[in-house]
Amino acid sequence: MNFRFCRSWEGMLGAGILIVVVLMAIFASTVRPGDPQAIVAAPLLPPFTNISWPLGTDRLGRDILSGILYGARVTLIIATVATMVTVSLGTIMGTVAGFMGKRIDEIVMRFAEAFQAVPGFILVLALVAVLGSSILSTIIGIAASSWAGLARVVRAEILSLREREFVAADRAIGMRPFDIAFREVLPNALPAVFSMTSVIIASAILIEAALSFLGLGDPNYISWGKMVAEGRTVLRSAPYLSIIPGIAIVLVVLAVNLVGEGVIETISPRKKF
User: Fold this and answer.
1) How far is it, in rounded angstroms, from Cα 80 to Cα 182?
2) Contact 181, 158 (CB under 8 A)
3) Which CATH class for the 5-27+76-267 domain?
């Protein structure tokens, strides 16, 4: 990228926030050892009133700072793995549909339309209800609801690239269609994939938070969405219980989108720095 990303203030700001969140997740057990769901102090202790519990405690007496730190782990794991699965599946299916001929294209696109016929969050809810509330089922649900949109974008890019001269040259020298598609054509379509990755990550974070808010997240792990939901019952007397994890969700989603803007500026040939 020739350091062009570093010249984007949006990208650098977003990257800075994400680095902080990643460090929070990595060092959560060092900063706050023990069970983040353990009762450690009096309930509803306001923030910044006790140095031992700087963000206060919830209505059961659990440390909010521990919840934020360990919740970052759950958020990052689900968002990262779900995005990897989504991008891999969507890229492969889009490449196959765009390059391997009309019959295969029709089959893949009809398959994709079957997933897009159901609103994304409803599909996630249905899959989590069937598979059970767990991190794995959340990842599967997010990937199932997101891959089809990416596949369509990749397919459109492949359709425009497969008519280029370098593809004709590869066919002339006897390269197999599979090799041409994935070794020669797909790399030229990756900028479109990169531009959508930030959207997929942000969507995964919000879906995970929404599932946890509705009580469909993994009950064995603390998450920011669950913390927001638990603060609803005392929203008037202790609004910080929902506001603090809510701010964490907003900051991470904002950071992901800022990094995405920076990446788009970096890979865009028309962008002038």
Assistant:
1) 23
2) yes
3) mainly alpha
